[in-house]
Amino acid sequence: MFSRRELLLAVFALAGLAAALAWALGRGTLPPADFTFANGTEVKSLDPALVTGQPEGQFIYAMFEGLVRWHPETLEPLPSGAERWEISDDAVTYTFFLRPEARWSDGTPVTAADYAYSLRRFLDPRTAAEYGFLAWTLKNGRRYSGGGSAVRPGDTVEVELNLPTDAINTLRGEIERGTLVALLDNDGKELSAEQLEELAAAEDADPTAWTFVVEIDGQRQSYRYADDDAAATDAPPEGVAWCRQVLLDFREVGVKVVDQHTLQLTLENPTSYMLTLLGFYPLFPMQQACVEKYGSPQWTYVENVVCNGPFVPQFRRFRDRTRLVRSDTYWDRENVALETVDVLAIEKVNTGLNLFLTGDVDWIREAPAQAMRVMLNEDPPRDDINPAPMLNTYYYLLNVERPPLDDVRVRRALALALDRDELCGRILPSGEQPAYSLVPPGLQGYDPPTFVPADMTGADQLDARLQEARRLLAEAGYPEGRGFPRLEIMYNTHEGHQLIAEVIRKQWERNLGIVIKTRNEEWGSYLTSQRQSRFDICRKGWIGDYADPNTFLDMFVTGGEQNNTNWGRSRYDQLIRDAAAETDPTARLAMFHEAEEQLMEELPIIPIYFYVSKNLLKPHVRGFYNNIQDYHPLWSISIDREGATPNDFLKGRP
Amino acid sequence: MIAFCVRRLLWMIGTLWVVFTVSFFLIRSVPGGPFDGERELPKEVERAIRAKYHLDDPLPVQYWDQLTSMATGDLGYSLKKDIAISKIVAEGFPVSAALGLLALTFAMVLGLTTGVISALFRGTAGDVALRLAATIGIALPNFVIAGVAIILFVFWLPLLPAAGWGSPRQIILPAFCLGAPYAAYVARISRTSMLDVLSQDHIRTAKAKGVGPMRVALVHALRGAMLPVVSFLGPAVAGILTGSLVVEQLFAVPGMGAHFVNAALERDHTLSMGVVMLYTTLLYTMNFLVDMSYAVLDPRVKLE
Amino acid sequence: MTTAPPTAADTLAKPSASLGQEAWRRLKKDKAAMTALAVLVAIVVAALLTPLLPLQPPDASDTRLEYQYAPPTASPVWLHNFELDTEAIAAAPAAVAKLQAQLDDDLPQLEADLAAAEAAVDERSADIDRQIAEGADISAEDKASRLQELNAAELAARKTIYRRYAEIEDTIQAPYRKAGFPELGAVSRWMVRTRYAIFGDSQFNALFGRDLLGRDILSRTFWGARISLMVGLVATIVSLVIGVTYGAVSGYFGGLVDDIMMRIVDVLYSIPFIFVVIFILTILNEERIAERLQAWGVTKITVFYVVVGAIYWLTMARVVRGQIISLKHQDFVEAARSLGARPARIIFRHLLPNVFSIVLVYLTLTIPRVMLFEAFLSFLGLGVQPPDVSWGLLANQGIEVITPIKIYWWLVLFPSLALGATLLALNFLGDGLRDALDPRMKDR
Question: C266 and C149, same structural domain?
Fold first, then answer.
């Protein structure tokens, strides 16, 4: 009936199917963990120095531990890696006394040298840590991470020599220490101090083209940059040696190992949030032996990694599931309630919600907006949801070089004519708060200035605001919007941003009689357009890195990386600089206040709303608190299925 | 036969090289880089990162480096996830392939059955109903089918788990959602080509000779009717085996499909190149098998 | 016994009146096909005449709670709150004339400014090139930075002109925009005015429900049809022409030609189209190019049709090739060849008509995919942008609104229904056409 060839084809197809099925079924099922949560997209890495996102942070907080750890509710820094510390009177020297019983997961003690190693690696330009600027608070930290372009004749420097190309990529080359005598450019001419400053100011310095003349033990030696491949194959020019890089001598940086359990950090300026910063995951330590044995990124793989936190990873399936188990060597293991934790990589919020509703996960960070609206309005109120304010602001950047946005009256009119109460009350699902300032409220001792008088920010004051907006627009030469050029709102493709842009477009058209277009771009193009200031109006969101106004306000210094508005004022820059050096906390906050007042006066940005956290948490989870950083360490979490009282998460629910 | 295979192999190498070259330059010419984020990096850091991943080398150097390492089978590391691309493929592809094979089986069985029945009982109410179902399968976007299926079989009738990967029960829903549109396509195509074949001379001759109608349909007509289905499925199989973004995301399946879109959007250049090359190889293999199967299915076709 | 195929071939290639009439007569007898044809015509007419219908404007939003996600309602069927500022419309031509006159006055000066700015750029550029030629060490980046200021001046001059034109356009559109319409062409504006004259302030209630912004889904479905049908039609025709010709040629000639042509298809299949789209977009967004295109009247949408068509011909080519390969050794082809027919004649007269039925099926499969694909392209920034709307965009909203907590079914159902109905009609019509054109079916 069928030919032999056809039968053969059928047999092959069936065999393939059977094999696939057998494989798919062969993975087996696992016993459920004590606590399972959806952690968003798969993490980029588990290397504390290299990651920046919230899902990554969740892992690092579980696997590693810094000098301090934050209280899960108040975020106050508590002793953890360090047992206690002393701060000098001028507030620039911090001495940490490490906990002697702290252990790595391989049983060896955690020492001051480990911390120093990690901070050095964090600052090393070859590590390329995105969060590296956080450690610029350390004395000479910025200069160290500037590498060859930051050293000047007269500095003591360290020259890192090349290694064979097959060396582990985390190993450092041999270090030569000496004094930098001169810098020569490509043609062998010496670079003058002025030239160097000019290059540095224009961010044009290219140390790979320079020759570094260093005096080592009385001998002059010249070095040029080369990567290991080039160093292995090409002979250096006459009288010059290859090196990987030239750095400021690390001994000049404010990191000092006093003894095995004492670490001294010296700061560039007194930094009031330094202790808090040390509890932030990028500054956590890693074990030198482990990093240098396996190389990066292999040292972070489950089978290799050595960590000092409350949990260690048991296995990791890419884009699926990572299982963490309580560490046997963690100093506070008696107080860690969870024995196993499953971290799921879930990309779609709908999927997370489905799993939460079927009881497969205990915690999700976010639910789809539409579902969120319904859940928040349920009666009786649900016992697993409680949005809370966060340190995040959503705002629009205005390109102040493009007319008519160069006119402050126009910018003000746009800011005033935006009906934030419609947006927050009706469009956004979770009780987001209208923003009339850049810095969110909730920072201790700081009451952010608003761009309209505080008594004009109410929902009932809309008409007054609109009147003012129309008056300003007329004053600027566009009565009732006549003759006002088309403006374009640019946003990256996402339903949420699109919705907000649409609503704002309608509001401006309705309230001011002007014409607004919207343009969406996919992520990469959007970022490029933003960077090159190719927009009229562009959406942006900012998550505060630490609980201090500086994390918001230092963005808008002239030429700042996040300041794509072309706006810049020397007075503002001065205030931000002064605040960094100010020791008195009250005076410092007053400076920030003045700076933000100027920002809100000139409005190169339009604040729109403050985010809220959108966690959904099963009622049987205890030790989980709402806080402005949306920080939820696993060590404080426990499970209590019998508990009758509502859990801490629901505290403060209206 | 052997000459045919060798020639195709040579063609395949050529094709791979062309695809590599075009993709490489296309990928580098779009705006945005892998290390752009909401937070713009300080210049020093950005420069250091680019140097670390050799993105500061001249383009021809990068091209040559990547071409040679690919040629030796080294796909490199993803720029956005600290993991070797070979490992991403090794973990993701079997998942996608297993899911895809199931979906494909489902699509073929359901699609061919309905297509043949539809053709044999052309014009009846049953035919119209089946065609209606097929049209719905084509018209509904994947995520709508998946969303409705989840609500039906997870929440209303709690028969199946909502998402995840590992147990047999977790495979059913994603396989169904992945296969449904293909089943609809197969049904449409097989119905039409079946009708074509049924009206051809050799079928009439067979009928005239007194061969039973069922036997005519299944042995003589089905074979001819398979041709268009197979040439549709060739490229489709490469797509189905490498997974689907929507289905993988909705059911949290750790397959390959998401990378095709996400790597591009995230500008993960190396991963993009990796999945493109994998896809090309698969596609080429599938098309080759399709061309082979023409010969198997239709004795009149000779492999030239 | 090779009577049938040539007959079918001739039917298509040289439709003599009698054969065409014969096919049409047969098609008329096919009730399903005729119903489908009627439905299709109705859909197309409805799409064309949408601005004339008493529907709520597609972008008119109302975010009061009772409107947000309001489910479908038919009580009352009619609302009486449609507003069109006829005074503003009446006043617009005068304002436009004034602006136009001003522009006409200023234009020589503006264009002279632009020309001067362009000349300055060219001059400086040539100057730098000369320096380079003389051995000065100027990198491409240096050159760009030296030209930056002049380029900016040129762009500003260009923008000034563009802005003046935009102002005129905005003055015309303003009253319609205010009512909640997307940008309208002259005919559509006329239809909106006529509609206001006929129906006054009456408009249908939200029979299909409303979305988050309180916009009427009924109206959005109708307005979406305009774009989606256009996309489906144009993109499919492009893919049909390229795909069928390419596949037929490749399949007929076979050998090396076939190998090369099919490898090209393989390459095109494999190249990640996302990058292609982003690449095209980048070029289109380059301000100079964008404005040149605008001057030629080429919009992003036009480019988008071509892109979609160019992506979807690949499968068509493979399928047609497969069919041709299996057909080309049949007796009637050999007969034609032995009679000395040229390849072009054999392909187009004898072979293609025989793959007609499978091509028709492919068309009906391609159209919906193109329509849904359009939504994905909008995601990348190409395609439809709000306030314009399409079925794909509407269907895409469904991703978020189907959750176990609450299903806003009307947001998904109606656009899908519209798409489904169109498809179903296309399918039945396609089948009917196939039968009508295929004389072998006569005795069945």
Answer: no
Q: What pLDDT does residue A8 have?
A: 67
Q: Which two tokens stand for residue C260?
A: 């090369």
Q: Does A369 touch chain C (CB under 8 A)?
A: yes
- Assign 3-class secondary structure to A578-631: HHHHCCCHHHHHHHHHHHHHHHHHHCCEEEEEEEEECCEECCCEECCCCCCCCC
- C424–B11 C-beta distance less than 8 A: no
| Average pLDDT of the segment spanning A561-578 | 91
Q: Which CATH class is domain A71-283?
A: alpha beta
Q: Is A423 on the interface with B (CB under 8 A)?
A: no
CB-based contact, A486 to chain C, within 8 Å: yes
On whether both C130 and C249 belong to a single domain, the answer is no
Contacts of C167 in chain A (CB under 8 A): 483, 485
> How far apart, in whole angstroms, are the C-alpha atoms of residue B298 and residue B229?
13
- Asked if residues C297 and C278 have their Cβ atoms less than 8 Å apart, the reply is no
Which domain covers residue C52, as residue numbers?
Answer: 11-56+216-443
**Does C327 share its domain with C187?**
no
Q: Which other chains touch chain A, taking contact as 3+ CB pairs less than 8 Å apart? A: B, C
Nearest-neighbour CA in chain B from C58: distance (Å): 23
Place of tokens 């947006």: A423
Number of domains in chain C: 2
Sorted by sequence, the CB contacts under 8 Å of residue A281 that are 6+ apart come out as A48, A51, A56, A57, A60, A61, A64, A66
User: Domain B96-267, CATH 1.10.3720.10 — does that match?
Assistant: yes
The model's pLDDT over A467-524, given as tens digits with 9 standing for 90+, comes to 999 999 999 999 888 888 889 999 998 888 999 999 999 999 999 989 998 988 888 8
Judgement on whether residues C368 and C255 belong to the same structural domain of the protein: yes
Domains of chain B, by residue range, sit at 96-267
Average pLDDT value for chain B: 83
pLDDT tens digits along C221-270: 999 999 889 888 888 888 888 999 999 999 888 888 988 898 888 888 88
ipTM, interface predicted TM-score of the complex = 0.89
Quick one: C179 and C238 in the same domain? no
Tens digit of each residue's pLDDT (9 = 90 or more) over C164-192: 888 888 888 888 988 899 988 889 999 99
Distance from CA of A43 to the nearest CA of C (A): 24
Q: What is the CATH classification number for the domain harbouring C27?
A: 1.10.3720.10
User: Does the A389-612 domain belong in CATH 3.10.105.10?
Assistant: yes
Interface contact A52-B39, CB threshold 8 A: yes
Domain boundary among the residues C174, C200, C226 is at C200
Best residue in B8, B21, B114, B144 for a mutation probing chain C (most C CBs within 10 Å): B144
Among B273-282, C412-421, C422-431, C432-441, the minimum mean pLDDT is found in C432-441
| C-alpha distance from C272 to closest chain B C-alpha (Å) | 7
Task: Find out whether A278 and A79 touch, Cβ atoms under 8 Å.
Answer: no
Q: What is the dihedral of CA C3, C7, C10, C16, to 10 degrees?
A: 140
Domain A4-40+310-382+621-650, what fold? Answer: D-Maltodextrin-Binding Protein; domain 2 (3.40.190)
On whether both C192 and C155 belong to a single domain, the answer is yes
Provide DSSP, B197-246: HHTSHHHHHHHHTT--HHHIIIIIIHHHHHHHHHHHHHHHHHHHHT--HH
Look at residue C207 and tell me if it is in a domain. no
What distance in Å separates the CA atoms of residue C332 and residue C341, rounded to the nearest whole number? 12
- Chain C positions touching B131 (Cβ under 8 A) are 424, 427-428
- Predicted TM-score of the model (pTM): 0.89
Asked if the structure places residue C68 within a domain, the reply is: no
Q: What is the pLDDT of residues C390-413, one digit of tens each?
A: 888 888 777 778 888 888 889 888
Q: Which residues of C, range 24-83, sit inside 8 Å of B by Cβ?
A: 32
Given a cut of 70, whether residue C282 has pLDDT beyond it is yes
Q: Does C318 touch chain B (CB under 8 A)?
A: yes
Residue C276 in domain = yes
Q: Summarize the confidence of residues C209-232 as an average pLDDT.
A: 91
In the structure, what pLDDT confidence band is assigned to residue C9 with cuts at 50, 70 and 90? very low
| pLDDT of A328 strictly over 80 | yes
- Tell whether the model's pLDDT for residue C442 goes beyond 60: no
**Does the residue C65 lie in any domain?**
no
Same-domain check for residues C381 and C414: yes
